[in-house]
């Protein structure tokens, strides 16, 4: 019995030491960063705050025995995820700290997220569970001791690729190490996905971050990229825990209590006791010092050990765009897409150095080129010319605006490039280029049967309705025309080119500008003559576009001996004389319902009325297009002042802004 008691004593005593060490270490989860998200005026109500407090308390209580947990309460969704290698004690303390920090720093926000080295914690009034989310995004890297290419970038990539390819199939978490190049020692990597993702979502998330490393991180001695759905980290030291036996847990010496056994055991206990006291003192002192550093880092995130960049990709980008990009993503409610900063060299390679063979077309702001990325993905690159009227402000405007917009009838911006003297926008590639390439080509126009034309009209209308009524801010495009409507593989329309767009907030309905930009022939008269624009000026442009699609004739440059240089006046004349059928493009006249097309001509004429108040909204126009039972008012019989304005411009050039085409 005595031997049994002695044999149990040592393990119990040593476990207590390590529990003490673990307890002290657990008190200092390493803070990285946090975001209080949501519009500034979208503050939480007292009821929301009360529910949130209850939910966060409940979440913290579940961190004792879980490394991942999600729950919801009255429309508030929350989740925590601890790093796959940390103990339950570390997880519990980290989640508790995260909950308290968010409660204190984001007291009035309906959405927030915080990252520690050891855990992630987030909550939102929008159900994000199971959704792949790449924003907000945080880049961190070591400020000093960057590696050189000779140290093995290829080996680093190999380490990362192996992690990314394995983690989705191994509990969404993977660590690994390998000797890289000729440098000393090993390199260490870690990747992790939120466990609410499926395998495909995890793989997509990690591969996106892997693509980002080319721009931001390869060649640095240590870095990480953190998002709500996944993270990736690389260091030159082991920063994660390895699975191994705790000291003192090895099988006991079977020599028993022979000669010298009791003395040895006594000495071991004394040494262990002294060592424990020493370690505890060191850890307490270290924790006090570390806590002061954490407090300083919480006050000023740009601490001494890491450089941090929020959501942009590398420090070489101009600060003005970086800061505005940060604001864009923080305030965005529709950030399901992913904005990427492309290197100029990458774009040059993809477009064969902007070769003539890759040129898709040319607009007032510069040429557009087709490109092909190393992955095989095709892109369209808008290259702003040095002499373009779209300067830096328009460039930033387009980047900020279009990235906020997520609608199937709006073209998707993939990224941008600001290097040297280049200003480049990278879009999804539209195989069928723009509507004008088909509509006004004598052969290609035959492809556009009535079904395709009606789909283009309704799709464009839905895109405009989203801009005017369904996006968080009212957005006025100001340059809707046939070559700003792109067509995908299935001839579905996507509105593009937001360089001249303007936003309205609150109850604002219209604005006035001295700088009229857009394209004459599509401009509403109040905008062309007075600089007054609103959602009704976009409706006017839509009406012009409708008449072009239905007639197959271009408004700009149109000439008829009886009604001058305007498709609008020609259409109005035919309509008033009961000859609207003569306006229909012969290419569709034989395979369409004539009465339906005449009704759509009627709707187009309502959209181009001189008085903005008489024009329908886009939602009303969509209702008219989709329902034959809606009674249509008669369009005004005015002589269309926009046509007179165009004629005046042609005869007597005025000191007005030149047209953008």
Can you give a write-up of this model?
By secondary structure, this protein is α+β, with helices and mostly antiparallel strands. Among the domains are: 130-241, Gnk2 domain, C-X8-C-X2-C motif (Killer Toxin P4, Chain A); 315-429, Phosphorylase Kinase, domain 1 (2-Layer Sandwich), CATH 3.30.200; 434-651, Transferase(Phosphotransferase) domain 1 (Transferase(Phosphotransferase), domain 1). It is 39% helix and 18% strand. The chain has 18 helices and 23 strands. The strands form 6 sheets. The protein has a 6-stranded antiparallel beta sheet, with helices on one face. It has a 6-stranded mixed beta sheet with strand order 12-16-17-15-14-13, sandwiched between helices. A 5-stranded antiparallel beta sheet has the order 1-4-5-3-2. Strand 16 and strand 17 form a beta hairpin. Helix 4 runs antiparallel to helix 5 (199-216). The radius of gyration is 32 Å and the shape is elongated. It starts with a helix and ends in a 10-residue tail after the last helix. Residues 1-26, 148-152, 244-307, 310-337 and 646-661 have low confidence and may be disordered.
**Count of beta strands:** 23
Low-confidence stretches: 1-26, 148-152, 244-307, 310-337, 646-661
Largest sheet: 6 strands, antiparallel
CATH superfamily of the domain at 434-651: Transferase(Phosphotransferase) domain 1
- CATH architecture descriptor name of the domain at 434-651: Orthogonal Bundle
Question: What best-fitting shape do the alpha-carbon axes yield?
Answer: elongated
